[in-house]
C-alpha cells in the first residue's frame, strides 16, 4: 500500500509539469528486494507547491525543501518530498 501511494505521488506532481523521481534509501531497498520503511521523492516543485497539490501535506523542514505527504488514514508511514 505504501509503495502504491508513493508511486501515485509522482504522476500527480507530473500533472502539474513538475519533475519527480523516487530517490534515496527506498531505491536501494527496492533494488535489493526489500520493502522500504518510507519513500523519498525528489521534485522540482517547491514545498508550497507540494502543499497545494497535496493539501494533507505538512512542512517538515520546508526551509530545507522538505514536505511530508502522509499515507491516508495513517500517521506513521509517509513519503517525504524533497
Describe this structure in words.
- The protein has about 80 residues and is of the alpha+beta class.
- The protein has a single domain, classed as 2-Layer Sandwich (Beta Polymerase, domain 2), CATH 3.30.460.10.
- About 35% of the residues lie in helices and about 25% in strands.
- The protein has helices spanning about 1-15, 25-30, 45-55, and strands spanning about 20-25, 40-45, 60, 65-70, 80.
- A 5-stranded mixed sheet has the order 1-2-5-4-3.
- Strand 3 and strand 4 form a beta hairpin.
- The chain starts with a helix and ends with a strand.
- The relative contact order is 0.22.
User: Regions with pLDDT < 50 over 5+ consecutive residues?
Assistant: none
Supply the number of structural domains. Answer: 1
Number of strands: 5
Question: What global shape is seen?
Answer: globular
**Which CATH architecture?**
2-Layer Sandwich
Main CATH class = Alpha Beta
Secondary-structure element sequence? Answer: HEHEHEEE
Full CATH superfamily name = Beta Polymerase, domain 2
CA-atom Rg in angstroms: 12 Å
Strand order of the largest sheet: 1-2-5-4-3
Q: Can you give the helix content as a percent range?
A: 25-40%
The portion of residues forming beta strands comes to: 15-25%
Number of helices: 3
Helix/strand structural class: alpha+beta
Largest β-sheet summary: 5 strands, mixed
- Mean pLDDT score, rounded? 84
Task: Indicate the CATH topology.
Answer: Beta Polymerase, domain 2
Q: Gap between N and C termini, in Å?
A: 21 Å
Amino acid at each position: 500500500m505504501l509503495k502504491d501511494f508513493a508511486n501515485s505521488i509522482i504522476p500527480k506532481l507530473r500533472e502539474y509539469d513538475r519533475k519527480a523521481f523516487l530517490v534515496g534509501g527506498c531505491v536501494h531497498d527496492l533494488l535489493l528486494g526489500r520493502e522500504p520503511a518510507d519513500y523519498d521523492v525528489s521534485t522540482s516543485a517547491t514545498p508550497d507547491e507540494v502543499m497545494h497539490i497535496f493539501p494533507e501535506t505538512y512542512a517538515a523542514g520546508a526551509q530545507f525543501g522538505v514536505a511530508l505527504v502522509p499515507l491516508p488514514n495513517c500517521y506513521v508511514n509517509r513519503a517525504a518530498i524533497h
